[in-house]
Each structure stands twice: as structure tokens, then as C-alpha cells.
């Protein structure tokens, strides 16, 4: 599920946390890094389970309403198209999802059913829902399109859901877009009632997990030496004027250039410039690009770039 850029962001955030806490317990900080990375799977399961819980909550509501003493004609014979949606039923009956939810103890919506009710209100006000419910019958293909549109246009951008996730676990906010993109892709791949959902692994492979560990440890253990690499390359910048995130990104980038021989120079530069654009000041990417560009020229002259493989320089 994770790509290398997201891993770099997690490492950056963990190094920043180490600075803020002034912690020298690397074992504890490394555990927190991997905890924040692996929590992305909990977020994935939580959002998927919201789709399941929305259908269940609406079915319970319709059943109770139909049994009221003075139930209206509409309450006695409601439009049940939403709760009969084949894709929502498919998700609810996925053993991979149910086992993962139970194993991870993802029961947030049982404890916060008020949010599910609010989300249902927002869904019922949406054009996506009203268009879908305007007819009584639908094919699996139509049910699938509705669920995809519901997720992409209504649920994923919902402010109530976003606020809940932010309050529940701050690290989830940086994972939200990545998880939503992955879920929407999986929903689009459901083509028939026998389709299955495969729970994604957090890391593409063991190399990515090792990369996270080594980048974190090597950057922290060599911070003073890495800082010396760029300190003389910033004559017009007082060290106190450089944003802390920028110094962390510079150290991480230099660490990759010098201590990760299999990562191409261009990849390192592009990745950290993009991260700087998103997480630091408006001018950070220009500043970092200038420093790295000068350093790379020096490293090439001094033969310090120990890159193995073709095309890595």
C-alpha cells in the first residue's frame, strides 16, 4: 500500500517528533515510527467498515420505522434499494474484511454510531444518493457505480469523517488521501457478486520496510555530520532562519545520497523536493534544490557518490 515517498514522509515526521521530545531512546522512537506506518492498515479497514456500517444502520432504521404504531405508508413500504445494494452486501460478506476487522479490533462505529447517523444524513442529501434511489431496481454494474460515486464524491470528502479521524489519530490525516485512492481503486475492480477484496500489505516488500528503518536510524545517528555537509552551502541563510522541516529533509536527502547506493540521485532529489512543497514553506523546495544541486556537483568531483548500477548518477 505504501510507496517510498510516503515512507519518507513518515520518517521525516518521526525525526521531527524526536527533535520536539528531545528523545535519545532510539528503540522507542523506532517503534513509534513503525506504529505510525502500520496504523495505515487500521485506517484502511476503518473506512471500509464505514461503508458496511452505513448499510446496516439504515436497514435497522427502516425496520424499526415500519413497526411504529402510527407508521406512514412510506415507512411501511420504504424504498429499500440502498440496503439491498449488491456491492454493499458483498463488502459485508467478505471474509477477508471481517477477519481483519475482528483481528485488528476495528469497532469504532459501534462506539460512535452517532457519526454514522450523521454520515447517513449527509448521504441522503447528496445528488448521488437521490439519483440512485429514483428507481427501484438496478444491476450489479449500477450498484457498483453508485458505491464508487458515493465513496469518492460524498464519503471521502466528508468533513465530519475527516474531523473524527483527525481527533482520533493525528497521523491518519497524512494517510487519508493514499488510503482513499486505494479503496476507490478496489471498489472499481468489483465486477460481479463473486468478486473479492484482498487486504493490502502495508509494505510492498521487505526492502521497503528495511528502507524505512535504515533511513530513520542512519539520519538520526549521523545528524551532526550530515548538517556539516550543507552548513557552508548556505552563506545567505542564518541557521536559525532555516525551517526545521527543511533541515530534516536536507539531512535525509544527503543521507540517501551518501549512504544508499541503490537509490538514483534524481529519485532522491525529486522525492524531497515534492515533500518540501507539501510539508514546508513555499520557498523550501527552491532552497533545498539549490543546496542539493551544489552538493551533488561537489560529490561528483570528489567521487563521493558511491552509486551502484547503471543510471543511478
TrEMBL record:
<feature type="domain" description="NusB/RsmB/TIM44">
    <location>
        <begin position="204"/>
        <end position="297"/>
    </location>
</feature>
<dbReference type="InterPro" id="IPR011605">
    <property type="entry name" value="NusB_fam"/>
</dbReference>
<protein>
    <submittedName>
        <fullName>Transcription antitermination factor NusB</fullName>
    </submittedName>
</protein>
<keyword id="KW-0889">Transcription antitermination</keyword>
<keyword id="KW-0804">Transcription</keyword>
<keyword id="KW-0805">Transcription regulation</keyword>
<keyword id="KW-0694">RNA-binding</keyword>
<comment type="similarity">
    <text>Belongs to the NusB family.</text>
</comment>
<dbReference type="InterPro" id="IPR035926">
    <property type="entry name" value="NusB-like_sf"/>
</dbReference>
<dbReference type="Pfam" id="PF01029">
    <property type="entry name" value="NusB"/>
</dbReference>
<dbReference type="InterPro" id="IPR006027">
    <property type="entry name" value="NusB_RsmB_TIM44"/>
</dbReference>
Amino acid at each position: 500500500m505504501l510507496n517510498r515517498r510516503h515512507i519518507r514522509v513518515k520518517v521525516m515526521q518521526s525525526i521531527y517528533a524526536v527533535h520536539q521530545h528531545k528523545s535519545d531512546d532510539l528503540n522507542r522512537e523506532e517503534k513509534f515510527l513503525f506504529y505510525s506506518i502500520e496504523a495505515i492498515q487500521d485506517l484502511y479497514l476503518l473506512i471500509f467498515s464505514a461503508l458496511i456500517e452505513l448499510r446496516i444502520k439504515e436497514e435497522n432504521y427502516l425496520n424499526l420505522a415500519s413497526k411504529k404504531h402510527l407508521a406512514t405508508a412510506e415507512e411501511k413500504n420504504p424504498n429499500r434499494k440502498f440496503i439491498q445494494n449488491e456491492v454493499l452486501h458483498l463488502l459485508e460478506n467478505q471474509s477477508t474484511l471481517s477477519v481483519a476487522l475482528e483481528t485488528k479490533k476495528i469497532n469504532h462505529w459501534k462506539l460512535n454510531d452517532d457519526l454514522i447517523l450523521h454520515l447517513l444524513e449527509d448521504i441522503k442529501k447528496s445528488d448521488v444518493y437521490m439519483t440512485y434511489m429514483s428507481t427501484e431496481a438496478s444491476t450489479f454494474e449500477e450498484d457498483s457505480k453508485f458505491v464508487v460515486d458515493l465513496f469518492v464524491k460524498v464519503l471521502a470528502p466528508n468533513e465530519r469523517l475527516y474531523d473524527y479521524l483527525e481527533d482520533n489519530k493525528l497521523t491518519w490525516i497524512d494517510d487519508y488521501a493514499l488510503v482513499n485512492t486505494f479503496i476507490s481503486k478496489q471498489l472499481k475492480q468489483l465486477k460481479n457478486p463473486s468478486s473479492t477484496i484482498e487486504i493490502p500489505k502495508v509494505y510492498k516488500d521487505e526492502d521497503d520496510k528495511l528502507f524505512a528503518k535504515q533511513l530513520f536510524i542512519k539520519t538520526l545517528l549521523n545528524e551532526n555530520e550530515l548538517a556539516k555537509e550543507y552548513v557552508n552551502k548556505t552563506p545567505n541563510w542564518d541557521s536559525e532562519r532555516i525551517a526545521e522541516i527543511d533541515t530534516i529533509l536536507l539531512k535525509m536527502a544527503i543521507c540517501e545520497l551518501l549512504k544508499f547506493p541503490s537509490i538514483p540521485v534524481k529519485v532522491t532529489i525529486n522525492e524531497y523536493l515534492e515533500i518540501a512543497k507539501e510539508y514546508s514553506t513555499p520557498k523550501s523546495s527552491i532552497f533545498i534544490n539549490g543546496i542539493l544541486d551544489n552538493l551533488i556537483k561537489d560529490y561528483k568531483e570528489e567521487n563521493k557518490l558511491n552509486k551502484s548500477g547503471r543510471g543511478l548518477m
